[in-house]
Structures are given as structure tokens and as C-alpha cells.
Design brief:
Distance between the termini: 10 Å
Shape: globular
Helix content: 40-55%
Radius of gyration: 21 Å
Number of helices: 11
Number of strands: 12
Structural class: alpha+beta
Largest sheet: 8 strands, mixed
Strand content: 15-25%
Order of helices and strands: HEEEEHEHHHEEEHHHHHEEHEE
Length: about 400
């Protein structure tokens, strides 16, 4: 880590020049959602975990009030004046830190200085592992520290989510930013999305590992059917709330209540979306009990059931994700596998015995390429901590 940070510091000075002002280092992870997909904006429970991959942000004040943006992973870069901190599609990744600065000001948190920033990450882009939330939360944490704003991690997550919603234009829920801000090593975050109540749940993997498999089919949330699915869920809630006035969100319905009132819903697709939400929320709560008992085989079965529901009821899977899950479940030592993230591409997450990890990557990779023509990528990530400041000795 020291060598990595020293290398980034050298790169920072090559770009922005040396200065008597000290450079500070901040880090935010990516996240993988273990179970509870498309639940966050429906008010239910989700169970994400922060990864040991993430984004490092180096930051230093500058006197002219401008903002420098540079990334080791993207070609777009620039030094912008305050009035240039507007959304522009051609600025790509730069829109995330630009949006964070704009959101700070919009929310009444002064930014009294300009800043030079260097971002460096090792989260696969477009894989559904929250590279954007990682950038946003790292930037927000850094700015809050530099400006001495007393924002807690939940405040930062909400600010980052507002950036994504209002500035970038992605109508995401709170889960990604919250997990990135509040992650804990070897624990998942059980989050009640509508009330932002959370607890850390130990993930006793023991002889098993979480293997993330990237289909390398790129998908972008803005261009996907994400907003359409969200609208369908809002339609279901608006109808069902008339039948059950006490519910505050769609995920609060029981399966029995939904069965009794499904005939009220306006279309078959809206019925399917609601059924997924209600049943997936139950799977999350059951998963917590199983993890607390150390019952990984039954937890794995819930991952499989989640994928089937996302494929058949919520219809956010795709052929590539389905092939990846099918081939994963052929490997001895795999307890469960499912798509993770918004869908339409991206990644799967599987619980794999450590002795089968190499076989998993080799055989699933070969079959996947044979069936889809795409080369998959496999990542053996650990579960890490949330956003923090790093020290360079």
C-alpha cells in the first residue's frame, strides 16, 4: 500500500506540480450486493458488502478557486472553473466529482477553496460493482474533511446519491452509496432502505470465497430499463397502498397480501415486478438468519432463487448473465450463484469453495466463451471496510 500511495503521490505532483500544501489520501471501496436486488428503491432490506477493491482520491487545495480532475484509468481530464461544474456527457467520469462539488454547494455546504484531485481505482468499470458510487463517496468524504464539514457517513451517502440522481441523471436508490460509506471488513450491511436503519452482519465464509464473474457485457444504468422497472414498482405501490393503507413501501407487503390483491394491478408485468420485490425482501431477511447460523448451503440456495426471480419476474437478466449462472452451478463446490447489480449485463456473484476457485474460473470461463463469444473476467475479492482516510508514512 505504501508503494502504491507513493507512486500516486509522484503522479499527482507530475500533473499538478509540487507544493508546500500537503496532499491527503482518501479511499472508498466498490460494493457487491449479496442479495436483495432492486429492493433499495422499494423500501425493503438489502445485504451488500464493501469490496477490497476501490477508488483512491488524492486531494490538495489550490489558490485560484479552480478544480483539477485527473484519473489513472480514464482519458478525460481537465482544470475547470466553478462555473464550468455542469453536467456534460463528454466529460464521462469527471461528472461524478463535478456533481459532488455542485451538490455540496446546493445543500448549503461551502466549498471555500479550489482543489486538485487525482483518482485511481481498480474496480472494473461498467460491471455493476459501483465504481461510480466509489468515486462519489471518496470525493465527498475528501471534501468534507478538507472543508471541515461535520458530515457523518449516512450524510455523505445521501449526498452522493443526490449527485447521482440530480446531477448525473441516474434514478438509483441509496444502497450503493450507503454500502460504500458504511462497509465493514468481513461483514455485510443489512440496510432498511426507506428508514436508513442498518446493522453489520458477519459473513462467515470459512472454506468458501465470494467470486465475482464479469460477463464483460457493458451496461449503463442511464441507458438501461432501470427507470422503467422503477416506474412499474411505483405503479404497483400506488395501487396496493389503497388496499393496504398502513404500508409505507412496496416491500412491506407480505406474500399473502400480494396474492390476495394481485388482481388489482393493471398488467401482468406490474404483477411480476411486485412479486419479485416482496419475495426478494423475504429472501434477504432469511439470509441474515442463515448467515448468523453459519448455514452457507441454504444461503446459497437463496442466491439461486434470487437469480431465477430476477430473470423471470423482474426481467433484468440477460443471456450472458444466465449462461454464467448456469455454468457456475455445474461446478462442484459452488453453493449458489446469481446476477448482482442492476442487470442487463455486469456481474454474477457466487459462493465457491476455495479449492474450486481455479477450476471455477477455468471451466466457467471456457464454457461462457463457447456459448456467448465473450471472454469473462473473474475476481476473488474480499469483504473490506468502507470509506476512510489513508496515511502515507
Amino acid at each position: 500500500m505504501e508503494a502504491h500511495l507513493s507512486g500516486l503521490k509522484k503522479k499527482f505532483c507530475e500533473i499538478y506540480g509540487d507544493s508546500a500544501q500537503s496532499i491527503r489520501f482518501f479511499y472508498a471501496p466498490g460494493r457487491v450486493n449479496l442479495i436483495g436486488e432492486h429492493i433499495d428503491y422499494n423500501g425493503g432490506y438489502v445485504l451488500p458488502a464493501a469490496l477490497t477493491a476501490g477508488t483512491t482520491c488524492l486531494i490538495r487545495p489550490r489558490a485560484d478557486g479552480k478544480f483539477g480532475f485527473f484519473s489513472t484509468g480514464f482519458s478525460e481530464h481537465g482544470v475547470l472553473a466553478s462555473e464550468e461544474l455542469i453536467y456534460r456527457a463528454e466529460d464521462d467520469w469527471m461528472n461524478y466529482p463535478k456533481g459532488v462539488i455542485a451538490t455540496f454547494r446546493e445543500q448549503g455546504y461551502a466549498i471555500n477553496s479550489g482543489y486538485d484531485m487525482l483518482f485511481s481505482g481498480n474496480i472494473p468499470n461498467g460491471a455493476g460493482l459501483s465504481s461510480s458510487a466509489s468515486i462519489e463517496v471518496a470525493c465527498a468524504f475528501a471534501l468534507a474533511a478538507m472543508e471541515k464539514h461535520g458530515l457523518n457517513r449516512t450524510d455523505l451517502a445521501l449526498l452522493a446519491q443526490r449527485t447521482e440522481n440530480r446531477f448525473v441523471g441516474v434514478n438509483c436508490g441509496i444502497m450503493d452509496q450507503f454500502a460504500v460509506a458504511n462497509g465493514k471488513k468481513d461483514h455485510a450491511v443489512l440496510l432498511k432502505c426507506d428508514k436508513l436503519e442498518f446493522s453489520h452482519i458477519p459473513v462467515p465464509l470459512g472454506e468458501y470465497k465470494l467470486v465475482v464473474a464479469n460477463t464483460n457485457k457493458r451496461r449503463g444504468l442511464v441507458d438501461s430499463k432501470y427507470n422503467e422497472r422503477r416506474s412499474e414498482c411505483e405503479t404497483a405501490f400506488a395501487v396496493l397502498r389503497n388496499a393496504y393503507p398502513h404500508i409505507a413501501c412496496l416491500a412491506e407487503l407480505t406474500p399473502e397480501q400480494l396474492d390476495a390483491s394481485a388482481h388489482l394491478l393493471p398488467s401482468e408485468s406490474v404483477k411480476k415486478r411486485a412479486k419479485h420485490v416482496v419475495e426478494e425482501n423475504n429472501r434477504v431477511l432469511t439470509s441474515v438468519k442463515l448467515l448468523e447460523q453459519g448455514n452457507l448451503p441454504e444461503f446459497g440456495k437463496l442466491l439461486n432463487a434470487s437469480h431465477v426471480s430476477l430473470r423471470d419476474l423482474f426481467e433484468v437478466s440477460c443471456r450472458e448473465l444466465d449462461v454464467m449462472v448456469e455454468e457456475a452451478l455445474r461446478i462442484s463446490g459452488v453453493l449458489g450463484s446469481r446476477m448482482t447489480g442492476a442487470g442487463f449485463g455486469g456481474c454474477t456473484v457466487s459462493v465457491v469453495h476455495r479449492d474450486a476457485v481455479e477450476q471455477f474460473a477455468a471451466e466457467v470461463g471456457a464454457k461462457y466463451k463457447e456459448r456467448t463469444g465473450l471472454a469473462a473476467s473473474f475476481y476473488d475479492f474480499g469483504i473490506g471496510d468502507g470509506v476512510k482516510e489513508l496515511e502515507l508514512a
